[in-house]
C-alpha cells in the first residue's frame, strides 16, 4: 500500500468519524469552538443541541432553528428577527432583551411587533390585554412574571410554557395542558385547576393554596416547598411527584394516587388522606399531626384502619 493511499485512507476515516461524532440520535451536536461565528455566518442550525450555550448579543436574524434545543441557552440581547423556532425547546432560555419580531415561535405562531424579551403572538396579547384565552395555543409561551389573575385559560395549551413567578390566582385553567411547564414560584391561589395536566411541570415554591385540583394530573411534577394549604386534590394523580417540604396543611387528598411520591418533610397536619394510595411513597419526617388516614394504602402496601388519625394504624 502506497504512502499516498494510506494518507488518503486516514483522511477519509477521520472525516467519517467527525461526521459520526457530530450526529447523535438524529440531532446535530455543535462543537463550542467558534459557535457564534458559524451560526451568524450560516444562519442554519436545524435540530441542533445548543443547550447552555452563550449566544448573548448574537445576530441570528432569519436563522433556521427548527427543532433546536435551546434549553438554558443565553440569548440575552440577541437578534432573532424572522428566525424560525418551530418546535424548538426554549425552556429556561434567557431571552431578556432578545428581539423576536416576526420570528416563528415554537408553536408555529408569528411573534408580533414589540416582541422584545418575549414572543407576543396574537394569543399572548389577547391574554395579556383581556385575560381571555380559552382553548388558545400558548405552547412554550413566554409569560414569566405577568399578572394574569382571574384569567380564563380553560382548555389552553401551555405545554412547556414559562410561567415562572406568574400570578394566576383565581384563574380558570380547567383541563388546560401545562405538561413540562416551568411554573416555579407561580401563584395559583384559589384557581380552578380541575383535571389540569401538570405532568412533569416544575412548581417548585409555587402557591396553590385553596386551589381546586380535583382529578388534576401531577405525574412526576416537581413541587418542592409548594404551598397547598386547604387545596382540594381529591382523586388527583401525583404519581412519583416530588413534594419534599410541601405545605399541605388542611389539604383534601382523598382518593389521590400518591404512589412513589416523595413526601419527605411535608406538612400534612389536618390533611385528609382517606382512601389515598401511598404505596412506595417516601414519608420520612413528614408531619402527620391529626391527618386522617382511614382507608389509605400505606407505603408498605397495607391499608390503614378506620381509627388512623395522625398515624397509619394497620
What does this structure look like?
This protein has 314 residues and is low in regular secondary structure. The chain has a domain at 43-120: Pectate Lyase C-like (3 Solenoid). The chain is 12% helix and 2% strand. It contains three helices and three strands; from the N terminus they run αββαβα. It has helices at residues 3-22, 35-42, 122-130; strands spanning 23-24, 27-29, 48-49. Strands 1-2-3 form a three-stranded mixed sheet. Strand 2 (27-29), helix 2 (35-42) and strand 3 form a beta-alpha-beta unit. The longest helix is centred in the N-terminal third of the chain and has 20 residues, at 3-22. The radius of gyration is 24 Å and the shape is elongated. The protein starts with a helix and ends in a 184-residue tail after the last helix. Mean pLDDT is 92; it is low at 5-32.
Chain-wise SSE layout:
Blueprint: H1 3-22, E1 23-24, E2 27-29, H2 35-42, E3 48-49, H3 122-130
Parallel strand pairs: 2-3
Antiparallel strand pairs: 1-2
How large a portion of the residues is in β-strands, by DSSP E? under 5%
Query: Widest sheet: strand order?
Result: 1-2-3
Please tell me the overall pLDDT: 92
Reported CATH architecture of one domain: 3 Solenoid
Distance between the termini: 80 Å
Number of helices: 3
| Rg over CA atoms | 24 Å
Judged by helices, strands and strand pairing, the structural class is little secondary structure
The first-level CATH class of one domain is given as: Mainly Beta
The CATH homologous superfamily of one domain: E3 ubiquitin-protein ligase SopA
Element pattern in H and E? HEEHEH
| Multimeric organization | single chain
* Total number of beta strands: 3
CATH topological fold name of one domain: Pectate Lyase C-like
Low-confidence stretches: 5-32
- Strand count, sense and closure of the main sheet? 3 strands, mixed
Tell me, briefly, the overall form: elongated
Q: Which percent range fits the helix content?
A: 10-25%
Amino acid at each position: 500500500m502506497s504512502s499516498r493511499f494510506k494518507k488518503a485512507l486516514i483522511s477519509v476515516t477521520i472525516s467519517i468519524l467527525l461526521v459520526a461524532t457530530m450526529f447523535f440520535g438524529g440531532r446535530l451536536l455543535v462543537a463550542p469552538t467558534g459557535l457564534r461565528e458559524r451560526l451568524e455566518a450560516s444562519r442554519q442550525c436545524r435540530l441542533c443541541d445548543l443547550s447552555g450555550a452563550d449566544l448573548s448579543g448574537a445576530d441570528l436574524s432569519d436563522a433556521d432553528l427548527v427543532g433546536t434545543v435551546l434549553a438554558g441557552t443565553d440569548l440575552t440581547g440577541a437578534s432573532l428577527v424572522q428566525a424560525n423556532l418551530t418546535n424548538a425547546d426554549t425552556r429556561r432560555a434567557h431571552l431578556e432583551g432578545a428581539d423576536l419580531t416576526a420570528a416563528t415561535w415554537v408553536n408555529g405562531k408569528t411573534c408580533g411587533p414589540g416582541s422584545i424579551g418575549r414572543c407576543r403572538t396574537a394569543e399572548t396579547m389577547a391574554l395579556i390585554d383581556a385575560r381571555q384565552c380559552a382553548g388558545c395555543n400558548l405552547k412554550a409561551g413566554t409569560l414569566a412574571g405577568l399578572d394574569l389573575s382571574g384569567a380564563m385559560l380553560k382548555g389552553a395549551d401551555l405545554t412547556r410554557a414559562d410561567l415562572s413567578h406568574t400570578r394566576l390566582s383565581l384563574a380558570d385553567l380547567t383541563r388546560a395542558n401545562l405538561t413540562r411547564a416551568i411554573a416555579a414560584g407561580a401563584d395559583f391561589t384559589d384557581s380552578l385547576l380541575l383535571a389540569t395536566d401538570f405532568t412533569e411541570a416544575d412548581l417548585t415554591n409555587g402557591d396553590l393554596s385553596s386551589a381546586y385540583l380535583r382529578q388534576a394530573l401531577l405525574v412526576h411534577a416537581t413541587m418542592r416547598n409548594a404551598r397547598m394549604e386547604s387545596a382540594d386534590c381529591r382523586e388527583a394523580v401525583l404519581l412519583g411527584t416530588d413534594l419534599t417540604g410541601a405545605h399541605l396543611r388542611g389539604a383534601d387528598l382523598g382518593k389521590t394516587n400518591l404512589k412513589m411520591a416523595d413526601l419527605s418533610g411535608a406538612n400534612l397536619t389536618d390533611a385528609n388522606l382517606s382512601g389515598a394510595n401511598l404505596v412506595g411513597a417516601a414519608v420520612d419526617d413528614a408531619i402527620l399531626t391529626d391527618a386522617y388516614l382511614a382507608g389509605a394504602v400505606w407505603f408498605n402496601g397495607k391499608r390503614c384502619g378506620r381509627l388512623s388519625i395522625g398515624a397509619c394504624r394497620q
